[in-house]
Amino acid sequence: MGKRICHITTVHPANDTRIYIKECQSLSKAGYEVFLITPEPFMSLTDVPVNIKFIPKEYSRFLRLIRGQWHALKEALKLKASLYHFHDPELVFMGLALKFMGEKVIYDVHEDLPRQILTKEWLPSWSRKIIASIAELVEWTGAKFFDGIITVTPLIQKRFPPHKTILVQNFPILGELALIEAKNYANRSPSFAYIGGITAIRGIIEMMKALEYIEDPQIKLILGGEFSPENLYEEVKSYKGWEKVQYEGFVDREKVAQILGETKAGLVLFLPAPNHISSQPNKLFEYMSAGIPVIASDFPLWRQIIEDAQCGLLVNPLCPKEIAEAMKWILEHPNEAEKMGQNGLKAVQNTYNWEREKKKLLTFYKKLLEEGA
Known about the structure:
The chain has helices at 17-29, 61-79, 92-100, 113-117, 128-145, 154-157, 204-212, 232-237, 253-260, 274-277, 282-289, 300-309, 320-332, 334-350, 354-370; strands at residues 4-8, 33-38, 51-54, 83-86, 105-109, 148-151, 165-167, 191-195, 220-224, 245-249, 265-268, 294-297, 312-315.
């Protein structure tokens, strides 16, 4: 058995796509003894050995920051790992504690936290810039001590010391969502898909309003994911467009592949929040990997990706009518739409895939574990 490593999260579920399916399983296959500390019950097993250690789930942000961090640290120390890899910005202090105890520590930065804080509606508007500045300072200070930083986008990468930071982008696993038995594109029902966290800032209200512009009763939106906050569900159901929604709730990876193999296009219509404009949402590349065209927000980075690959349509995410017109175009131009889907799949096969990113992760691990060994 190879060296023992420990991944830690107090936020993400045990079967998180990036943490468990991509990173932990890739490291396990490479010969490491992998442990994952998480507050969420495990939801699916694979034949790839990853050891799951549960800690109590805290539902309060404050308790998660204090008590959740303490539970994670205690469990981590029991494992006596060669390297600790944590995934949540609130665990920076736990990471520093491990570092001061002489451990090797990696911080995996999934989001542009300071920009994300600027859009948090539960924070008083006057406090957001102050808290965002503090968060950026805390991350920057922690980065000076941690052995390595992993980021998901080039823009986030620029915020951290270049000599210890690598970019491991959240691209899909080749073949995972491109079903061999997927329906022939021409024979698919006039349906669209949105899979992921369902929030106002990710465009769910605009999607409902767009559906109201579509008269054809056969057209539907297959919605997979959980609403946040939970009361958003009742608000969204009040829109007339909900009549065209097929809501699946939380969906596992197998169900995601099935949905994408039956639909005409995938929607990724994030609103123009500061942390969205430079993001690279996993669902964009997952739609491409499933061989379907995308209808996406017209942000400069997304425009570059989609136009270079010629894999979809760009719209103003704040304009439901424009979204509806794009959906109609997909249905009225099936040959062109199918070609877009094929182009997206080729782009994933050639560039936007986890197999390329995995090599960077494994090289980074090898380097860090050899230092001072």
